[in-house]
Amino acid sequence: MTLEWLRRNMEGWDEQMRTYLFTTGNILEVEEGADGHGSTESKDLGIGEL
User: Distance of CA 14 to CAs 2, 19, 35, Å?
Assistant: First the structure.
């Protein structure tokens, strides 16, 4: 239930969850993207520093 609340109420979470969690493909291939270059940039989900 917590993930669903975050998905609905936090900007960007829906897109991230659809990209990585709600898929049947290989997560690593999704991360590398179509051009084959992985991203080293950290994405901010708006929850502060952990």
Answer: 13, 9, 23
